[in-house]
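Researcher: Please predict.
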Amino acid sequence: MTLCTISFCLKQLIGSPDDSSLGFLRSDNARRYVRQLPQYPRQPFSARFPNMSPGAVDLLEKMLVFDPNRRITVDEALSHPYLAPLHNINVEPVCPRPFCFDFDQPSFTEENIKELIYQESVKFNPDPIH
């Protein structure tokens, strides 16, 4: 199954995002692209997964949200009643420092990207021939 297929199946399940769910997209082109895709209504998770417990359905609905700012956080998910039997804060390791996902955040200019590619290539070929 390709990423595109997974994305399509997910969109059919969670439905097409409304404009308020596109705010996290920084690019107007990205928002236009998402808006032009075929529109799908949100499917009731309990109907799509009739054998899942209501707690599992609730957790899944909170995790599968288009806007990452509206998704359940890791801490909230671990505290969700569905995971309560598996969650014991006394025996769970804690990361000594938060993960840094800065690479996910910046909007690079074309020049920044060219410089980053150049710097990376120099690591593999430190003495360029001129």
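Model: DSSP finds six helices and no strands in the chain.
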